[in-house]
Protein: AB hydrolase-1 domain-containing protein
Amino acid sequence: MATATATMALLLPTSPPTPLPMRARPAPATRRRPLLRASCASYALKEGQSQRFHRLPCGLDLEVIAQQPPAPAPPRPPLVFVHGSFHAAWCWAEHWLPFFSRAGFPCYALSLRAQGESSIPSENMAGTLETHTGDIADFIRKEISLPPVLIGHSFGGLIVQQYISCLGGSELMHPRLAGSVLVCSVPPSGNSGLVWRYLLTKPVAAVKVTLSLAAKQYANSLPLCKETFFSPEMDDHLVQRYQGLMKDSSKLPLFDLRKLNASLPVASVPNNTIDILVVGASNDLIVDAEGLSETARFYNVRPVCVEGIAHDMMLDCSWDKGAGIILSWLEKLTPR
Structure:
């Protein structure tokens, strides 16, 4: 318990979150390291998938796993997928890239800085909301011909929210989107509210989540990894395989969490700026029902909670449930 309590301090602000704090720009990092392209545990691409690297203006490379529709079809908006912590492009390539490409959507999964096989920057963190959002905008601007649907999971969902907040500005800086899907997303106020709620109402769950994520014990305990990310019905051999890929995916933390939480919430946008689907999981140990509702309220939409599925919706044993809901939403998407 002492270890968990100490580790919890890494996630928490010094007091409970207050509404609508002023946005603060993160201070520059001081520790430096040589620029490297990361190596990752071997992920075998599926038939029809390709891997390439997108060169950013700063000289770093982002890993991209792409999959095109298997047969010529009428143009449909491309889908650009953004992962969360301890994941990379491979988490989308397993099930959702084949599923959505078969439905006629060109698919592109990115690995953020220092994740997967993307380059490692010289700072001691992979980036900030602004740098990650800028990287995605650069990829869309240079490599995507039609306005895409941006799909983000967990902390990747928060990055997508930051992108949405920039849509009122120059299209040259942040190209417009056809829509956005937030999957088990960290809410606009960040993860501190989630942590405080767990501490006050579910202390055992709070300890488990802290040990698993902040102390990274998911990498050493198969049962803890399974409980954090997957449903109890998930085959252990699959959990072990994904555990190995997660363990090797993240060379640096995506963010400095203290600085991130101080900069939140993300800026709101006028209603009808963009079509947004907010989808969560009934068995999510990381983002609770109130976190899902907060995100939906922020964008004035009705949340969809998928029953019988856990946080890693795109990898879980019932991955097709969430994919089917998103596909139905995409089929009804009205071009703006």
Remarks:
- The domain at 49-189+251-331 is CATH 3.40.50.1820 (Rossmann fold).
- The CA atoms of residues 78 and 148 lie 5 Å apart.
- The beta strands are 36-37, 49-55, 61-67, 79-82, 107-110, 119-120, 149-153, 179-183, 276-281, 304-306.
